[in-house]
Amino acid sequence: MAKYIIGTKIGMTQMFKEDGSVVPVTVVKIEPNIVVQVKTKEKDGYEAVQIGTGKKKKLTKPEKGHNKELGSFAILKEFRTVNSKLETVNFQVGDTIDISTFTEGETVKVSGISKGKGFQGVVKRHGFHGMPASHGAHSVLRHAGSIGQRFPQHTLKGMRMAGRMGGVSKSIRGLKIIKIDAENQLLVITGSVPGNNGGIVEIKST
């Protein structure tokens, strides 16, 4: 059965392995996750589990109606269940998903909203090399170059250009849980995960 949980990114630090090597890690705080809704193919057209966490003071009327039995949740996330016949039956509305769901050494996929970088040029945003830095090319060093041709006389869709960078959903696969602090409800994951400190991340076993 796949495992899902929502957490808050605390920040990065480092840990030492038994052989003395240093490993960069990210610490994620886990609040109790409550199963808010179980979606089935017969009723909703697809299989999924909706999970809520955190508290929210002011709710809209649709939110009040959706969560009237379980209270308010600041964060609601939906996870598709791959094998519905095996997975959906394991979840019931009101069930709590906590840190004990995962084990040390487990491989996970972590998703979150990447850091916003604002308006950036093509060199930073897309990794362009820029123009030659000699022979009179002083004013176009970081320009994109040609963005089209004579025909069809307009810029084609998908052309890599300057624009807003970051602030989009990103996922990183192949990360490992190297430590679980059950007392403080912390997951320690190898490497970096998307987003700012204090951002919401989704953790799913792979």
UniProtKB/TrEMBL annotation:
Q: Where does the signal sequence lie?
A: none
Q: Which InterPro entries match?
A: Ribosomal_uL3, Ribosomal_uL3_bac/org-type, Transl_B-barrel_sf
Pfam families named in the record: Ribosomal_L3
Q: Name one GO molecular function term.
A: structural constituent of ribosome
* GO cellular component terms, semicolon-separated: ribonucleoprotein complex; ribosome
Which GO BP annotation is one of this protein's?
translation
Q: Which UniProt keywords apply?
A: Ribonucleoprotein, Ribosomal protein, RNA-binding, rRNA-binding
The question of whether RNA-binding is a record keyword is answered with: yes
Q: Which SUPFAM superfamilies does UniProt cross-reference here?
A: Translation proteins (SSF50447)
Q: How does the record describe its quaternary structure?
A: Part of the 50S ribosomal subunit. Forms a cluster with proteins L14 and L19.
Q: What does this protein do?
A: One of the primary rRNA binding proteins, it binds directly near the 3'-end of the 23S rRNA, where it nucleates assembly of the 50S subunit.
Family under the similarity heading: Belongs to the universal ribosomal protein uL3 family.
Full protein name? Large ribosomal subunit protein uL3
